[in-house]
Amino acid sequence: MSTLEAASPREEGEYGRAAKRLKTEERETEAEEREEGEEELEEGEDSDSCSLPGNGESAADNRARWNASQYGAGRRDNGEDSHRISPSPVVHVRGLCEAVVEADLIDALEKFGSICYVMMMPFKRQALVEFSAVESADRCVSSGAKEPVYIAGQQAYFNYSTSKRITRPTNADNPNSGNKVLLLSIQNPLYPITTDVLYTVCNPIGSVLRIVIFKRNGIQAMVEFESVQCAQKAKAALNGADIYAGCCTLKIEYARPTRLNVIKNDNESWDYTKPYLVRRDHRKGRQRQAILGEHPSSYSENGYGPPCPLLPLPGNSRYKLSSVDTPDMVSYPLPQSSSSYSGHAPSSVAMVSGLHPSKMNCNRIFNLFCLYGNIEKVKFMKSVPGTALVEMGDEYAVDRAITHLNSIKVFGKRLNVCVSKQHAVIPSQVFELEDGSSSYKDFAMTRNNRFSSAGQASKNIIQPPSAVLHYYNVPPCISQDHLLRLCKEHDVPGFVKFKMFDAKPSSKTISGLLEFDSKTEAVEVLTVLNHYQIRIPNGSNPYTLKLCFSTSSHL
């Protein structure tokens, strides 16, 4: 039984509402960005879209262009400014560098006035900053329009937000009356996140009492600190930081529960005030006795082995903490596959059961699983109908696939994804599937693998399945009607909303978003149409349609 299932109904409701609140808050933020003309960054998009158009212009020219686009575009002939955003205590900050954390924003912008709250948007390199007074926000926006304002060494750009207040999970106006429990959302989780990982990251900043990890909307966790002050320091120092280089990015808010209830100590929950907490099995009068004890003598108590070299604490050099409060360095743990702590030996092979007998084949398994790691081989098992072995690039990829694809529905059947006892897929007993295709296929050399290099892997934002798909690498001549016709031809559900991103004049492809009625429909469309070859008249080479799950929850 999981930690959340074993918690009391009231506490389970609190955890569930926290996840829903975070999702709602992200929707509000995304809606605000759309109103301000923001184009979302998705997999495969140019990261420069967050910054101002340069074309060799000076910083002053860029600022002038920014102000003109924000304030001048809506002016009518009679002088009325129809689209100007009215002053707000909330400022939208853009053009941040990837390494920025909340503490950097506070250090750079507190000279304009008291700051109430900060919301980081790490992958968009943006943030929302709420000042105590509109006058402070006005000084920030005006100053940024007149002269460069640098945050963590990089020039940032400012405009008023359409919101008058940043929604907080705690609904507390005064951050000093905040909560000692933080809600952490781990974005782009390329490596497993466990209580050991989060404790190693958080405890050097403030004493951690309890941790609970849950995976309802991606990977989220609640961390309870010893005091509100410890939680505030941790939020400022870690909000927007990467646990590992280029991935596992932390987005931190205050949680609503004021105390966590932990019933067992394991990789998904831990009470550090009760180090020997063990879950009792209420179904049996007594536990079965183990002949050789709890674990083999060769088993290491430190599941992560030796720590990796010391890394600077994100933002610590600029965050105002005394040396007594926080050490200068934090030892981050090495990533480890969850397979090694789930009782199985680490394996790069996943076993997938519950596959539809006539609608699933090797290519369609590749289309779905390639979002979470490279695919080497796929083989259907003749002795177990509806089951396949998927050999991936490493055990981390298998862990990501299990986290995000286990128990999802595809073509009316629920997938079961787990670690296989096999360490490689052997092409034996090859037979013909119901659709006429082969039961085995080698994908090691395909160009459609998305994690073949560090640069390529960094563009993949690991997302759980959602009702919105991001499409890219599509020829400009393809319209909304073409894509709807493609869905109909392949007997998959059509999308209900469509959005095309503005392409650069020199771009040879287009991209956008497709929203479906349900997550299940989006999964089925991606499974069938991902990597579909689009041929255009007089074109020498076809375009490979690429799909992935979007960071947006709706259009």
Automatic annotation (TrEMBL):
PROSITE patterns: RRM. SMART domains: RRM. Residues 27-48 have a biased composition (Acidic residues). GO terms for molecular function: RNA binding. InterPro entries: HnRNP-L/PTB (IPR006536), HNRNPL_RRM (IPR055204), hnRPLL_RRM2 (IPR034986), hnRPLL_RRM3 (IPR034983), Nucleotide-bd_a/b_plait_sf (IPR012677), PTBP1-like_RRM2 (IPR021790), RBD_domain_sf (IPR035979), RRM_dom (IPR000504). One of its GO terms (cellular component) is ribonucleoprotein complex. This is RRM domain-containing protein. It comes from Channa striata.
